[in-house]
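lol so apparently i was supposed to do this last week
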Amino acid sequence: MPHTLPPLPYAYNALEPYIDAQTMQIHHTKHHQAYIDKLNAALEKHPELAQKPLEDMLKDLNSVPEDIRAAIRNHGGGHYNHSLFWEIMDKNPKAATGRLKTDIEAKWSSVEKFKEEFSQAAAGVFGSGWAWLVLDSAGLSILTTLNQDCPLSQNKNPIIGLDVWEHAYYLKYQNRRPEYIKTWIENCLCGEKCETRYQKIKK
Ligand code: MN
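anyway here it is w/ manganese (II) ion bound
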């Protein structure tokens, strides 16, 4: 079954004025859709993989046939990463209050300190990529990846992902990536949704 674009859990203008409706609409219907179209086109060459969960392929890229490995990494990664990105944002974001909060405080001493370090990592991505909060056997850590590389391919589970490709912010913020990052963390990122994701992954 081909992969399809998941509907946004809110309207395109829900994150105004922090992320403008035009950016959200183009990002979702053009950029995300294009990753899905190219992922599906690659999978047509290997119908035996059509039913295989995308997560499983990203976790073990070496098991993906070589002729479509780059496509799964780039376009499969693009599909997975964007699906997560939409999921963890909210119009009225609530703070994390459970295990995620506790574990972040244990590692970074405070949520504010974590946000600071995460923001610096995101601002420091050279070119197009993502900043992540990930969980692996060593616990929580901050990670950045280039292009659409997914933390799953490094055996890490993403909890928070911030898209710092220019297409995510350029219409409103132009070259001011740090302003986009700060605005996103303070006004769009929903700690409660991240908490839910964390508890599912950690159980
Ligand atoms: Mn994007």
